[in-house]
Design goal:
globular, alpha/beta
């Protein structure tokens, strides 16, 4: 069978899936809206229920207390999705927290995002990790 001419075989690939672990429903809706507008697939997981049967490109995890018990949420995400890059978002990070800096390194994650964050901060962190979805 001849290959299709003039068709990019990757044009039909699914958009990268991002799992968001965020307890606050309004914040989850906002993060999801921003990422969906950029053509990412978004899935909500509370981190407590059985892990969904997904192969996400990355996870965005809200941590209330980065130095304490909330780190268990990172362990659950790592167990559910081994090897998947993680960005954490927290109100405990200062506004000067930068992407893959000290806070991210301490937590063993790819990006640390202060909360509240701007849409551009979130999208930039996601793009740095998984790239942009195909148009």
């Amino acid at each position: 069978m001849a290959a299709l001419q003039g068709i990019d075989r990757f044009a039909f690939a699914a958009a990268p899936t991002i799992v968001i672990v965020e307890r606050d429903a309004l914040m989850w809706e906002l993060l999801a809206e921003w990422l969906k507008a950029e053509r990412y697939e978004v899935y909500r997981w509370d981190g407590m229920e059985p892990a969904p049967a997904l192969d996400p490109a990355m996870a965005v995890v809200d941590v209330c207390w980065p130095r304490h018990a909330e780190i268990s949420s990172l362990r659950r995400v790592r167990a559910a999705f081994p090897g998947v890059p993680i960005a954490v978002i927290s109100g405990r990070f200062s506004s000067g927290t930068r992407g893959a800096g000290t806070a991210a390194h301490r937590l063993g994650v790819h990006q640390a995002i202060p909360k509240p964050c701007h849409r551009a901060q979130l999208v930039a962190a996601v793009r740095e990790i998984v790239g942009s979805p195909r148009p």
